[in-house]
Amino acid sequence: MSEPELSTLVTIKCKQQTIRAVRFNVDGSYCLTCGADKKIKLWNPHKQLLLKTYGGHANEVLDAAGSCDSSHFVSCSSDKSVILWDVATGQPIRRYRGHASTVTCVKFNEESTMAISGSVDNTVAFWDTLSRRQEPVQVLKDAKDTITAVQVTNHEILTCSVDCHVRLYDIRVGKMTSDYIGQIVTFGSITHDGQCFVLSCADSTVKLFDKDSGELLNTFSGHESKDLLLENAVNEKDSHIISGSANGEVFYWDLINSNCTRKLVHCKQKPVVTLSQHPTESYLLTACEDEVKLWGTKALEE
């Protein structure tokens, strides 16, 4: 069965200098854009509607994540801080300053009781978002270089690093498994079924690994990563791997046979680094410079 064509449904000029990260919220009705202008903006991308702007960071905002009920979100910045925000009031509730350097990535756990951040200081920190505690509850210090990405499931944390390793922490039993990938890992995601992780590597490949055995199942290539920290995503059906590229194209590969089945062109010869897959539908958000595009099938909009 051939996949329906994806086209640009909406183009948003964010007016944030450069978008460092774009993220759907938990149900895909809203999205957050993190800007080089130190601001985070909340949008309804389907209606091209700016809902709120959040200012409080002292430098570029590099990542953000919405809570499980969309009432809060966390953001992180090259100002070394993580901020917990109240979505409705637009106010920062907590400001966490435990990292010694730029904070590159941040996620919530499933219940949104803990924020987990990774940094250029090589550590991953856990912040209790319910208490008034200012220090991290726990700090993971296993990585030997910058943490590029963190992913969280109900009992596991995946961390990716410039030290060419990914580490999987099983919180239930307090166990850490480290895998040497042989390349700088710029981003990692986990398939929806929880069986595999998908790693973007600095050698212009995306690699699919079995989470339990550590076996390399597939390699996806054809895109150019240059020295960018390209992100990847898995589509809502776990059937395709998605990545941006240095030259403005967004690649879709078949997860099983690794064939490139689709290329979207966001903007010619300008990098598409950050993207976000809708949790249940085939919508995709991509960002290039100051512009975010919402992709989808025409049938989705009807």
From TrEMBL:
Q: Which SMART domains does this entry report, sorted A to Z?
A: WD40 (SM00320)
| InterPro entries linked to this entry | WD40_rpt, WD_repeat_MORG1
Q: Where do the WD repeat units fall?
A: 12-44, 54-95, 96-128
Instruction: Please tell me one Gene Ontology term that the record gives under cellular component.
Output: catalytic step 2 spliceosome
Q: What is this protein called?
A: WD repeat domain-containing protein 83
Keyword annotations for this protein?
Cytoplasm, WD repeat
Where is the protein found, in the record's own terms?
Answer: Cytoplasm
What PANTHER family does the record tag this protein with? WD REPEAT DOMAIN-CONTAINING PROTEIN 83 (PTHR22842:SF3), WD40 REPEAT PROTEIN (PTHR22842)
Q: PROSITE patterns from the entry?
A: WD_REPEATS_2, WD_REPEATS_REGION
Species annotation: Parnassius apollo (Apollo butterfly)
One GO process term, biological-process aspect: mRNA splicing, via spliceosome
User: Which Pfam families is this protein grouped with?
Assistant: WD40 (PF00400)
